[in-house]
Amino acid sequence: MNPPYDRALITGGGTGVGFALAAALLRRGCTRVALCGRDPHRLARARDALGADVLTVPCDVTDPDGRSHLLAVVEKAWGGLDLLVNNAAVQVETDHLTGLTPEALRSVSGEIETNLTAPVLLTLGALPALRGCCSGWEGVRWSEAEHLGETAE
Fold it and tell me: What global pTM score does this model have?
């Protein structure tokens, strides 16, 4: 299956779900995959493990300058974007029953910034690069997309 997209950007792509999705996209014929994450060493290991010409951009998606730089690098390299996967996330362990201390509130605020605010702002910033992608492809083809997470056979 050739996907209807060839230029994919995955946040939080150095490990876990983001890395697995990058591997699945490459197996399915996507030839240009960019990974971003906060740890350049994890990104380098991911690129080496994928065995492909993967673009890696160290980036904290909560940083406005980082988001702008990320999108500029992808735009310069590929002239646009077909797929954006907002995968970067954090999870804060908080005991809400004992009260929300100032430290816990800062942690929860950081979680909201990473998991909600940053993906919305990155998506808004990526819209110009996404315009015109996937010619003839109207929305998500769930019959194809549901197989992206399958492991290699």
Answer: 0.82
**Phi and psi at residue 61, to the nearest 5°:** -65, -10
Taking the alpha carbons of 21, 27, 28, 31 in that order, is the dihedral positive or negative? positive
Distance CA 141, CA 5 (A): 12
Q: What is the CA radius of gyration of the chain?
A: 17
Asked if 138 contacts 84 with a C-beta cutoff of 8 angstroms, the reply is no
User: pLDDT tens digits, residue range 10-58?
Assistant: 999 999 999 999 999 999 999 999 999 999 999 999 999 998 889 999 9
Q: For residue 151, give both structure tokens.
A: 């492991």
Calpha distance 25→32 (Å, rounded)? 9
The predicted-structure confidence for 51-99, as pLDDT tens digits, reads as follows 888 999 999 999 999 999 999 999 999 999 999 999 999 887 776 666 6
Greatest pairwise CA separation for the chain in angstroms:
54
d(CA 40, CA 57): 8
